[in-house]
Amino acid sequence: MDALTVKNVSKIYSEHKALDNVSLTIPEKTIFGLLGPNGAGKTTLIRIINQIINADSGEVLVFGEKLKPNHIEIIGYLPEERGLYKKMKVGDQLLYLAQLKGLSRADALAKIKIWLEKFEIKDWWHKKVEDLSKGMAQKVQFISTVLHEPKLIILDEPFSGFDPVNAQLITEKILELKENGSTIIFSTHRMETVESLCDHIALINKSKKILEGSKKEVKEQYRSNTFLVEHRGNHFTLPADKYQVKSQTKIEDDLFSTTIQAVNGIKGNQVIRDLVDITELYSFQEKLPSMADIFISLVKGEGDDALKKHLQEV
Predict the structure, then answer these.
(1) Model confidence at 265, in pLDDT bands (50, 70, 90)?
(2) Residues spanned by the domain of 71
(3) Which one of 46, 224, 244, 252 is least enclosed by Cβ atoms within 10 Å?
């Protein structure tokens, strides 16, 4: 079953079209990257899913059911703009927010204890939020988001304010939540995090969805059959009807790095067979596009051909 289905959703603010007929399918028990530049429409879509605002047209299904008020109990939302009560103590605040999500006081207290132990912050119970650093407050907000064990978790820039150690800790907890059956929608500008965490992605730009699929499918779509080869000697000739040499640089002595593009659907194994007969091969790798390459090129409006040309040249 799909965790979330967005069908032809549009939203207009006065003269500004925030979402234009956007459709998405988010598989259950996956981490889904919702990507796009500032102002693309991501936050509007997230607010519609959380029933903060209503769509002008289209519909949203949560685990096959049309979105309705009681779905808020199975959704956890970490907004980019943090929303803790600064004068409240950490323990009181977590207890209050957990009960708003439908947990009994006893269940809430038990789960809060578990999460404070996971983050090694048991002694924070009586601290006021205003006395916490940004990163410390972010941990509390993250706990409040997942405390009620939501089936659908929406994280908007969850690593903001974290140092690398705590970012790694949050990463581990996100993966743990996925393993325990949660579906996670992950909105971020950090492409390295998308590479390491996301199973599926969608890219929204200027209110429209311009790309969607599994991370593997998306990268496969933008393959250019370009290979980076390290070898001894800089002189070799490849059949012109099969290959184009794009660039060559000297690494040291007679060790060179050469970028070649295979044409006519030639695969890596065939490229290796053709190379070992004519040069001393030291390393071989296909140059696959990064999520950052794809994101930047499509947002700039360069299109598929420009992206593939860029990957051949880098």
Answers:
(1) confident
(2) 2-216
(3) 252
